[in-house]
From TrEMBL:
It comes from the Bacteria. It is found in: Cell membrane; Membrane. This is MotA/TolQ/ExbB proton channel family protein. PANTHER family: PROTEIN TOLQ, TOLQ-RELATED. It holds the Pfam family MotA_ExbB. One of its GO terms (biological process) is protein import. Belongs to the exbB/tolQ family. It comes from Snuella sedimenti. Its main location: membrane. InterPro entries: ExbB/TolQ_transport, MotA_ExbB_proton_chnl. Keywords: Cell membrane, Membrane, Protein transport, Transmembrane, Transmembrane helix, Transport. It is a multi-pass membrane protein. Residues 98-219 form the MotA/TolQ/ExbB proton channel domain. GO terms for cellular component: plasma membrane.
Amino acid sequence: MLNTLLQNTQEGTEVLQDGESVEKTLSIIELIGSGGTAGQVIIFLLFMLLILATYIYFERLFAVKAASKIDANFMNQIKDHVSNGKIDSAQILCAQVNSPVSRLIGKGISRIGKPLADINTAIENAGRLEIYGLEKNVSILATISGAAPMIGFLGTVIGMILSIFEIANSGGQIDIKLLADGLYTAMTTTVGGLIVGIVAYIAYNHLVVRTDKVVYQMEANSLEFLDHLNEPT
């Protein structure tokens, strides 16, 4: 009886040891490497999209930050120069500041002497150009946020097709290990696509919010400038 218990204990230990020896851990690099040419191409494409989205985000973020910086006393100085008839000094000040707001005000100053409607139209046209410059390449982020998950899903479909093809070629016998490896590889592209899409989506919306603040600043200062011109002298 004792010998039987000892044998069972030894067998249980061997099973446990065997179980520990075959324990699998997931490795992203291994999954990508075992994904075949199609899976690797999809992952590489998603990685390039991630780099592009990151570059556009930080490049635009720094540009929007620079555009939002303006001296709080800028408009007071402009109004003083205009009130005193120092149009050249006001234009020089706008050129020195070099921001979207200063360029709009500078455009309005260059039209002083013409009807107020013409000045307003000139400022609005200049404002459209400034907004276009601020939103440069931001639409690419929106495209990446929508396209990346679809590209990842395409990799998943390709992986599933290849897995089913391998199973069919195995004589109809389902190899669980082969099927599991195929599913791991297929889902890797979906996860990669979702990650890239989420990052691009968050980056896009953050830039939109920051750009809207600059646009509001441009509109507020332009309106203040037009109101000053409309004041009775």
